[in-house]
Amino acid sequence: MLVGLSPEYVQWMLAAWAALAFYVLAVLFLRPWRERRGLVRTGFKISLSLWLLAFAAVLAETLFVSLYSTTDAFGLSLVSQRWNERFVQRNNWECRDRKRYEGDIPPGRKRLAIVGDSFAFGHGVRRIEDRFGDLLERRLNAETSDRWEVYNLAEPGADTGWESRTLHALGREYKFRADVVLLSYVLNDLEDLVPENKYIVGTIILDNPQNFFCRRFYLPNFLYYRMTQFRRPEFRNYFSWLKDAYSGDIWARQRKRLDSVKRWCDEHHAKLAVVVFPFLNNFRKDYIFEEAHGVLKNYFAETKTPELDLLPVYRRVEGQSLVVGSFDAHPNETAHRIAAEEIWTHLLKDLVK
């Protein structure tokens, strides 16, 4: 219950419950309801009303912290931050995994390295076993004669530049190798190249609640983001300003970064494959990134890189939610399971032979 809660927060809550209990003991000892003086009785009624309000607030906060756990898209709320404390475990390379990572491939094994952002990282997915990467590891070991290990090098907020730099840095520092590199591509992987990015992301990330209770307590903080931040246009239409980034100078710069990923794979004798995730909010209708998907498809065809676009795949899914929640459009366990099946069938099955 206390996992992920700061000592300061626990102290505040213990002090609140102690104050409520002290009031009850004081009232039972003094018995002010027997007092005949009207002023004392009136003061008791007012204090009792305030105690009831405080008790309701502290009880609601306690129940909320005990029972509610989820993420939001940007990991801003205290609830989302605590979710990460509870369910995200890092290994020796600070990646979300339980197994220890090594640079070279041990004898008798093969390695699939997944490079990506929060989609591949599994933001909002409690069990790492439910991520598409871990599902693929089980599939590879069940349906091939080789012994495979999957390294998930994804990180929330990563862009293609970060992914390229990470591969090159791991190659230099750890002599890192992989038989197959799977690039998990999301259409905001070039957002750092867009001039509007600094203002919009800064506005979202840095605009924190100023109220004491909203900053320190989970339920007020949760209500603050639900009632104010997440209703703002920057949140609801966060990616609309990326629509034109897949043309002109920005796309030319992004191509060079993708070329750098491919070059690392060529230099280290690793096969490169790409899976493209659509934005999962409003992807069935009025989806403004159809053209961007086409641009990516042409690029990967031109560079002879095996690619799978999950947009048409997810559009065929009916009656099932594919996102973590109403305020978090990351893929949920169902979306990860579908992605793993499609990646295996249309990318890896032939590539690993």
- Outline type: elongated
What's the domain count? 2
Look at the structure and give the CATH class of the largest domain.
Answer: Alpha Beta
Helical fraction: 40-55%
Q: How is the biggest beta sheet arranged? A: 5 strands, parallel
Strand order of the largest sheet: 2-1-3-4-5
Q: Tell me the number of helical segments per DSSP (H or I, 4 or more residues long).
A: 14
Rg computed from alpha carbons, rounded to a whole number of angstroms: 26 Å
Total strands: the figure is 7
In whole angstroms, the N-to-C terminal distance is: 47 Å
Uncertain regions spanning at least 5 consecutive residues: none
**What is the third-level CATH name, the topology of the largest domain?**
Rossmann fold
CATH superfamily descriptor of the largest domain: SGNH hydrolase
Describe the fold and architecture:
With 353 residues, this protein is an alpha/beta fold. It has two domains: 7-67; 94-196 and 234-351, Rossmann fold (3-Layer(aba) Sandwich), CATH 3.40.50.1110. The chain is 52% helix and 10% strand. It has 14 helices and seven strands. It has helices spanning 7-30, 38-67, 78-87, 118-121, 132-143, 160-174, 196-206, 212-216, 218-227, 233-236, 248-267, 290-302, 311-315, 333-351; strands at residues 110-115, 148-152, 180-186, 271-277, 307-309, 323-325, 328-331. Strands 2-1-3-4-5 form a five-stranded parallel beta sheet, with helices on both faces. A two-stranded antiparallel ribbon has the order 6-7. It is elongated.
